[in-house]
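This is your field. Pick holes in the following sequence-structure pair:
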Amino acid sequence: MEPKPLALVVEDNEDLNSIFSSALEKAGYIVESVYDGIRAQEILSEIVPSIITLDLHMPGVGGDVVLRRIRSDSRLKDVRVIVATADARSADAMQFQPELVLLKPISFSQLSELAKRFAPRKQTSKIIEPDN
């Protein structure tokens, strides 16, 4: 059995953090969650998740700074980032673009379905037939 992919939820609102975490678990991920931008930066120096949900307005360090760090770190180049925000204007102005911007409120089922689409594909073996 293949290990589940890792997701990171960066959201300071406890209720939303819980909803996002549950939605990602339902989509097949193992979830780590943090409640501030400083901790997000610390944990990203230790792990490489497959997907991140990122709130822009975080205590300590803003989500835009966290996203800039993600995009400048070669270890994290393949990480899918979903920005979850109520601030459409800030999301539009971001220099380092996420894969997707979702405007709050975001439903459990919406995030779960999107996360399933972003899940890493299972490796399949290719059989190469010899030329005759």
About this structure: The two ends are 36 Å apart (CA to CA).
